[in-house]
Each structure stands twice: as C-alpha cells, then as structure tokens.
Amino acid sequence: MGKSYLSEFEELILTVVGILGEEAYGNSIVEEIWTQLSRKVNLNSVHITLYRLEDKELVKSHYGGATSARGGRRKRLFTITNSGLKLIKRQQEQRQKLWSLIPKLKMILT
Length: 110
What we know:
With 110 residues, the chain is of the alpha+beta class. The chain is built from 5 helices and 2 strands. Helices cover 58% and strands 14% of the residues. Helix 1 (8-20) crosses helix 2 (26-37), helix 1 (8-20) crosses helix 3 (43-55) and helix 2 packs across helix 3.
C-alpha cells in the first residue's frame, strides 16, 4: 500500500465507494456525491482518483456485464478493500481526536 493518508478528495471518493458497495462506478459516484453533499465533481477527476486508489490497493475493480443502454459497453465497478476501510476509519478517528481538542467544541459536545 502507498502512503498512509488520503487527500480530502481521495477520502471522499473512497467513502462513497464504500457507501455504494457493488454499485460503485464513475457516474454513480458523481451522483451520490451530489445527492448527499450537493457537491458537483468532475467525472474525469473521479476516474483518475479511482485508478490512483486502485494502485494503492484501497479499492479493487471488475467489469460488469455489457448493457444495450451503454451501447454494449461494460461498467467498471469498484469495491473498497479491507485496507481501504481501515485507512478511512483511521483517518476518521484522527480527525475526531483533533476536533475534540478545539476548546469551543469541547464545551458544546459535553
């Protein structure tokens, strides 16, 4: 596995792959980010990030069946690996630790 941290966008894409499970592919990721966060992301950026995450062994991919709706082309589907799950969990724990150190938040949260 490559580096032990993710950029904000890598973490976003990896998290959405985890959310979508077996239905994670470029367009579904773009749509889920819009649905959940009202954030527009570029499909090409999503694909580049997915390939980078795959190189780091945080996601794996396989091709689904060809469909007539896609002109006979097959979707490249992505799933999160155990390493990917561990990494986003660790990042979330680290982030929560830092958030808890902010004095005003500590007072609000307790």
